[in-house]
């Protein structure tokens, strides 16, 4: 499709389904040298193997690596696995969860679990990638998965919005910390994207039709449209961009 990611080794967490899977496939379509597909389990939904098979069919080296992003040792091992291909150039910290019940009275255990994946996991992923990039003298790109819910708050997802707002500022803080090494850190903030997470998150699923009607483009987003945004941020086409949150929402956050 293009050579935007030519010679780049791309690692994607939460890549066995939905947006992460689409990012991994987009990376391969746009010329990546190798794509590491990582997830907490091999077959959560679409699955790790179907994803790696699709990437292999595009003639791109790939491997599934199991990693729970809330465990630092797992994430370090994932990034170590990229050394086989020459080290990570583009790290996509995509893994994230919603809760069966969220809101002002969110339960403590659920809240801590969500933060451990959405915030701890995102930071651990960025840290591991930055460490390897610095050691290899690579001027890489780290892309964090935020959400429109991290830019505007939603009462039905208090914990989720809080975590994603943290990701938005994490991108800015890490951009400042890693910029002197030539490492860029950005976030992508998707709107309503048609995935398993959207269809099966109580509250969000019901709200999705309302969001669709208010979205200027009058449709939900496709996972591949987030994949395309990540490819741009991972490529040298965005070489003077760091610390941003790229909103990909069909215009929803721009209208009242
Ligand atoms: N779908 C949307 O509308 C939407 C909107 C904004 C942001 N997002 C964000 O995009 C990202 C992907 O969402 P999606 O819609 O593709 O959801 P999804 O549920 O289809 O995919 C999330 C993936 O993360 C994995 N995962 C969960 N916990 C993990 C852990 N501890 N370690 C490793 N992997 C783990 C899951 O197994 C799954 O494969 C998430 O960060 C989500 O918050 C989604």
Automatic annotation (TrEMBL):
Q: Name one Pfam family in it.
A: adh_short_C2
Q: Which region is the signal sequence?
A: none
Similarity comment text for this entry: Belongs to the short-chain dehydrogenases/reductases (SDR) family.
What's the protein name? 3-ketoacyl-ACP reductase
Q: Which UniProt keywords apply?
A: Oxidoreductase
Origin: domain of life: Bacteria
Organism of origin is Noviherbaspirillum aridicola
Gene3D superfamilies membership: NAD(P)-binding Rossmann-like Domain
GN (gene name)? fabG_1
């Amino acid at each position: 499709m293009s050579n935007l990611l030519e010679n780049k080794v791309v690692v994607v967490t939460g890549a066995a389904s939905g947006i992460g899977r689409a990012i991994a496939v987009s990376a391969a379509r746009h010329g990546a040298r190798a794509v590491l597909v990582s997830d907490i389990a091999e077959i959560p939904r679409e699955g790790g193997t179907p994803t790696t098979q699709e990437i292999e069919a595009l003639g791109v080296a790939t491997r599934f690596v199991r990693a729970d992003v809330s465990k630092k040792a797992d994430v370090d091992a994932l990034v170590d696995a990229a050394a086989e291909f020459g080290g990570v150039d583009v790290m996509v910290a995509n893994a994230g969860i919603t809760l069966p019940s969220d809101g002002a009275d969110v339960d403590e255990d659920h809240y801590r679990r969500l933060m451990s994946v959405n915030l701890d996991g995102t930071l651990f992923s960025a840290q591991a990638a930055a460490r390897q990039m610095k050691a290899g003298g690579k001027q890489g790109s780290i892309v964090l998965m935020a959400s429109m819910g991290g830019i505007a708050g939603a009462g039905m997802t208090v914990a989720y919005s809080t975590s994603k707002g943290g990701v938005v500022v994490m991108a800015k803080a890490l951009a400042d910390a890693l910029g002197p090494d030539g490492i860029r850190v950005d976030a992508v903030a998707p709107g309503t994207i048609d995935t398993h997470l959207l269809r099966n998150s109580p509250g969000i699923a019901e709200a999705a039709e309302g969001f669709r009607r208010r979205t200027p483009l009058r449709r939900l987003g496709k996972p591949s449209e987030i994949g395309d945004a990540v490819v741009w941020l991972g490529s040298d086409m965005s070489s003077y961009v760091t610390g941003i949150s790229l909103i990909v929402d069909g215009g929803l956050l721009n209208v009242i």
